Amino acid sequence: MFFNAFIIALREIRRNLTRAFLTVVGIVIGVAAVVTMVTLGRGATEVVKAQISNIGSNLLILRPGQGWGHSGAPMFNKSDLRTIKDQVPGIHALAPFVNTNVPAVHLDNVRNTDIQGTTSNYFEIANWKIAMGRFFTDAEVLEGASVCVIGETIRKELFGKGVDPIGGKIRCKGMSVVVVGVTAVKGQGGFGDDLDDNIIVPYTTLQRRLTGQAKKDNINQIMISGETGYPTANIVADVSSLMRERRGLTHNEENNFSVFDSLQLADAISSSTRVMTSLLGWVAGVSLLVGGIGIMNIMLVSVTERTREIGIRLAIGARAREVLLQFLVEAVTLSCVGGVTGIALAYVFCSLGAEAVGAPFLFDPKINLIAFVFSAAIGIIFGFMPARRAASLDPIEALRHE
Amino acid sequence: MIPRATPPPPTATGVVFEARKLRKVYHTGELDVVALHGVDLELNAGELVCLLGASGSGKSTLLNILGGLDVPTSGELIYKGWQLDGSREETLTLFRRNCVGFVFQFYNLIPSLTARENVALITGISLDPMTSEEALEMVGLGARMDHFPSQLSGGEQQRVAIARAIAKRPEVLLCDEPTGALDVTTGITVLEAVERINRELGTLTVVITHNAVMSEMADRVLYLSDGKIVNSHRNETRLPASQLKW
Q: b/e per residue, A71-95, with b = 16+ CB within 10 A?
């Protein structure tokens, strides 16, 4: 009986192909939108996660002031660095971080870039890999050697593609440094910045020869990596407590420093992406409902058009529930056809969209299945009323219908 | 009487329908239209009965009530001991499904289904049906089973409708002006099919007609006027449908 109802439903759809197409457009758009939004949203979340992990997945950054601007808050110094290292448990490594933005010159090539001063620990903390040459050593940090490690962007801009820059010299204002290594490509950071557009030098070199802050001993940031498995939230709490004590802050005073946890950052960005995705998913869901109303409308028209047919079925002995099933199967078939077409369309949109926004195309059968089941449910919900109307017709009246 | 879910088994002889003081009133706004004024009748197994009468005489109303499509306002209707009046809709549906075959004036085939599929509508739901192929063979349409109604002539469409009506092996075949929309030759072909069903399956057949000539092929003729049976007569011999002329 169900199979017969399905065959008849297909026949009816074929008989009114244009109308069926127009009826399911709403469902097609709804399903395609839901699947595309959710799939691309998941892809974007994965990209953000990957980018955060590029910065260093177990990384904490101690910065002066609240938020990203320090607004006159006191900087850190070597003593802070040592105390944190000695007194806070769960720390695997830490490194000072000083940076400034100046033009870097090699021969005729100039590039305004970020000059970062740190220690050798930084490479491990921030998950840097070496592509050519080597990182600088602790000894070179101690002596304030004129060495640097450059990112791939700097190599291309200052030395040219394919040129070996090791041993080459770069001049940054009054400081001249020799390239000892090139870092492996990292790509974009969590905020879309180019992580390969930098020159990393010993922080002592930067302080003594570029920023002139040697006497002040200022350190812009302290980069900390936690031990594997040790909760970073504990490190954040301990570092905060220690720094408040060292800075003499009373319990009424707010922190004049902040600790960023890359894990928390990744979670925050992921969760905001998720919220956006689900929001867009809901908006797309509304178009599915509109599609459902379209189906109900056409099914009501169909019931009116086929009143005589309904009368025949009832006259020859079909039960009301069999007539109801027939029309319900037709509505569900229509919405399922819309669902399948929507999923196919979403596949195309997702592959094009993923390429356009540089996110991976993560095909998730679960989302597709949910969208399909939802479209079928729309068919049942919105098809029920017209089907019930058909089933409740009086056979004699229906047979008289012109 | 509590309605039974399944109808009584068919019998070759005896009274099939027994109607006592059947009355049907349609309420249309403030007006009451009396379609049947206390009809009494008995219809027997294997009979071919013609209902003759002018338009509005109550023929179709009587046929619809006999077929369980409509219910009487008052009076008694018994089908082989089974009280139909006062039955629930579900019971009447089962009665229509298993005991009654309808043939309408305008064929009433479903246009999106082939001849075979139109017949299969009933073979799929009744208790002991013949196959669609058997039913179509009986009405001489073995070669046109996979044609859609639009590909068949009026006479052929009506024969498909007959095949659909008899596929359930009904005890009763009710035909409402089966030749009303057909020319004479085609009409006779259709009547031959009806006659054959009546003869070979022993089905009680009731045919509504305006055409007095057609009554010559019946065992009995009932004349209706103003919702009453005003006259009836039994033919000594039944004229074969092929010999009818009008």
A: eeeebbbeebbeebeeebebbebbb
Taking CA A166 as the corner, what is the angle to CA A161 and CA A172, rounded to the nearest 5 degrees?
85
Contact A138/A119 with Cβ under 8 angstroms?
yes
Q: Which segment, A269-273, A365-369, B43-47, is predicted with the most confidence on average?
A: B43-47
Number of domains comprising chain A = 2
CB pairs under 8 A between A and B: 57
* Rounded Cα gap, residues A106 and A158, in angstroms: 6
Quote the minimal CA–CA distance from A46 to chain B in Å. 51
Instruction: Write down the pTM of the prediction.
Output: 0.67
Q: Are the beta carbons of B112 and A319 separated by less than 8 Å? A: no
Question: Measured between alpha carbons, how far is A40 from A364 in angstroms, rounded to an integer?
Answer: 11
Q: Are residues A230 and A280 in the same domain?
A: no
Q: What domain range is B231 assigned to?
A: 45-71+97-235
Are A12 and B112 inside 8 Å of each other by CB? yes
Q: What's the mean pLDDT in A108-136?
A: 90
- Tell me which residues of chain B have a pLDDT lower than 70: 1-13
For residue B40, being part of any structural domain is answered with: no
**Pairwise CB contact (< 8 Å): A1 & B96:** no
User: What ipTM is given for this predicted complex?
Assistant: 0.82
Is some CB atom of chain B closer than 8 A to the CB atom of A10? no
Residue A371, pLDDT > 90, answer no
Residue B231 pLDDT: 93
